[in-house]
Amino acid sequence: MEGRIRLAVIGGTGVYDPALLAEVREKKVATPYGEVEVILGRLPFTGEEVAFLPRHGRRHSLPPHRINYRANLWALRELGVERILATAAVGSLREEVRPESIFIPDQFLDFTRSRPSTFFEGEERGVAHADMTEPYCSQLRRVVKEAAEGLGVGIREGGVYVCTEGPRFETPAEIRMFSALGGDVVGMTGVPEVVLARELSLCYATLAVVTNYAAGISPQPLTHREVLEAMERGRGSLRALLARALSAIPRERSCDCGRPLEVFGA
After folding, report:
1. Which of 85, 215, 237, 260 has a CA 20 to 30 Å removed from the CA of 244?
2. Domains along the chain with CATH numbers
3. Residue 93 near residue 212, CB atoms below 8 Å
4. Angle of CA points 20, 25, 29, to nearest 5°
């Protein structure tokens, strides 16, 4: 019988292949929301098997609003995953949050509109109200911070990730509003991923690579090419950080993420 896999990486823009893993193989996982292809491989230091899922597909074929977030998270849970490190490319809303740094959010603001954002829609599964007081796992954030310090990688731990619908970039007026509301970085994929992870009692943390200043702060118009080029420059340090953090995640969970939800009417 195949062993359970407790750790997973969700790769965002610019992170489409599991280069940090060895003995790579593919596995298709059936879910109530569709089939998901997950890549499995082993960590170089510990030999532990880890799941890797490219959020946008291996050729960036899915825009943010068309990603099947529910299928992705359900597939990871089916494999036995308990803890997820997700990467993302983000724009900075503040001059002090500099491009090519890594940002670890502890809160989010949701400005998405058309995405299914829950597994609990009544009927067979009932209704549940997930607590989002601490949406990102405190234990995983601490592990990532300590791994970054050990590697000498500069990160900012704590702050607000603003999630927009996309796929367009934001206007300068929107960026001013997000900043006034307390946002620090802006991206297009963090929600509902973090919410769905909590509904499945999974630990989840985001490693957001700041690729540029947002519209109205950046001195030139934004392009996706600029984002990809920034991710390419930071790819080596991001892979090293992921590998070190994954190897350091303890088996016992000391957070509240695994607490099951209270479900009504199921």
Report:
1. 260
2. 7-253 (3.40.50.1580)
3. no
4. 110
- Per-residue confidence of the chain (266 residues) as pLDDT tens digits? 356 899 999 987 777 778 889 999 999 999 999 999 999 999 987 899 999 999 988 778 899 999 999 999 999 999 999 999 999 999 999 999 999 899 999 999 999 999 999 999 998 899 999 999 999 999 999 999 999 999 999 899 999 999 999 999 999 999 999 999 999 999 999 999 999 999 999 999 999 999 999 999 988 888 888 888 877 787 778 989 999 999 999 999 999 999 999 999 86
Q: Which whole-number Å values give the CA distances from 50 to 6, 17, 260, in the listed order?
A: 7, 13, 24
Nearest to 89 by CA among 263, 233, 243: 233
Among 2, 1, 139, smallest CA distance to 82 is for 139
Compute CA distances 93 → 10, 79, 170, 211, 251, whole Å. Answer: 24, 37, 11, 12, 36
Q: In a 3-state reduction of DSSP, which class is residue 74?
A: helix
231: closest CA among 132, 118, 87?
87
How many Å apart are CA 41 and CA 47, to the nearest integer?
9
| Structural contact between residues 83 and 46, judged by C-beta atoms closer than 8 angstroms | no
Cβ-based neighbours of 175, under 8 Å, separated by 6 or more? 93, 186, 214, 215, 216, 217
Distance in angstroms (rounded) separating the CA atoms of residues 242 and 262: 33
> Helix crossing, 138-151 with 224-248: angle to 10°?
100
8 A C-beta contact, residue 203 and residue 84: yes
Q: Report how far residue 252's alpha carbon sits from residue 245's, in angstroms, rounded to the nearest whole number.
A: 15
Residues 6+ away with beta carbon under 8 Å from 252: none
